[in-house]
Amino acid sequence: MSIKSVEILDEGLNVFWSNNSLTCYPWFWLKDHSENKNDLHPDTKQRQIDSFTKTLEYNVFKVWLDEDSKNVFIEWNDKTQSYLSFDLLETMAKPRLPQSNSIDSSNCWNTPSEIKDFPEMTYQEVMSESGLKKWLMNIKRVGFVLVTGAPATPEATKELMERMAYIRSSIFGGFSVWDNKLDSPDDTAFTSLAIEPHTDGTYVHDAPGLQTLHCIKRDSIGGENQLVDGLAIAEKMRHEFSDAFEILCNVNIPGRYIKPDTYLEARRPLFRINNKSEVIQVSFNNHDRAPFRLENDQMNKFYDAYKIFHNLANDSSRQFEFMLDPGKVLTFDNWRLLHARSSLSGYRQLCGGYHNHEDFESRLRILQ
What we know:
By secondary structure, the chain is of the alpha+beta class. It has 2 domains: about 5-90, NE0471 N-terminal domain-like (2-Layer Sandwich); about 105-365, Double-stranded beta-helix (4-Layer Sandwich). Helix content is about 25%, strand content about 30%. The chain has helices at about 25-30, 85-90, 125, 130-140, 155-160, 230-240, 240-250, 295-315, 355-365; strands spanning about 5-10, 10-15, 20-25, 60-65, 70-75, 80-85, 120, 145-150, 175-180, 195-200, 210-220, 225-230, 255-260, 260-270, 270-275, 280, 320, 330-335, 335-340, 345-355. The strands form 6 sheets. A 6-stranded mixed sheet has the order 7-8-18-11-20-9. A 4-stranded antiparallel sheet has the order 10-19-12-17. Helix 6 (about 230-240) crosses helix 7 and helix 6 (about 230-240) packs across helix 8 (about 295-315).
């Protein structure tokens, strides 16, 4: 598509496109979005123009297109000029509100058998330039990737994680190595106990976006891992338990983490949605749920809705179960998938850490 012509109106600039469509851009919007190097920094891509120091009404002197009819140039009556690229004008041809990133529900899975093109890759493949994009796209598509053939060392695991982005620090540190024999464990994850399906970080305002786990030593029986697609549960509840779905979209559930020197608490709905009612985050951890009260009738309705989600998450037919052996690295979307673990006897040593969701999204944008 290209620009056929432009037309100056009192309210803005009409742009006629080669597909016979028409867009009218307000003058103030055009001035505010100028891509001249004095208006938009060429390196940082940050706005340099202070759009609000003058009146919102701009008087235009002339408008013209470059030789390829791709980009628009405007000269204002004060002799300043604005430049707007074809890419920007085409992208913004239709008014739209900024959108939160929703999860693609077309690839959600209710049972492991519904997982299309099972997301398993080799360590060597992920560490290659071509494999990095595939790794991240698989996480976006299915919610997780199992990487096989990795060296069973913290160093190799850390190197793998840093292919995506810097490693996020948390209450547990940054990249960590731990086992199930701690004298005073900070979390049930550091024990041999079973853990039911949950997401991490319900007690922080910005929950970790992705988690990576690698069992680097194992001399144990049990300890199988399970993954559940929280998005699939959300869509099932939206269609089959709509009242319960609405409750879980609107009730802010508190989560907490308590130690002698730490008391973290945050609140958010189990289903966080955007302005189109698309789910952008699933947040569920019955272990870390803090006490709270609603009016009695609302509290009972909340418990009923929460129980529906809880029971669906704990339905074994919905769970993909596997064993994390040395050399097998799991990376999953903590805003979408719930993870769990069976109890174990014996010894396990693991390593891993978190990534921010925005850094995962950033790397994908760069690669695409």
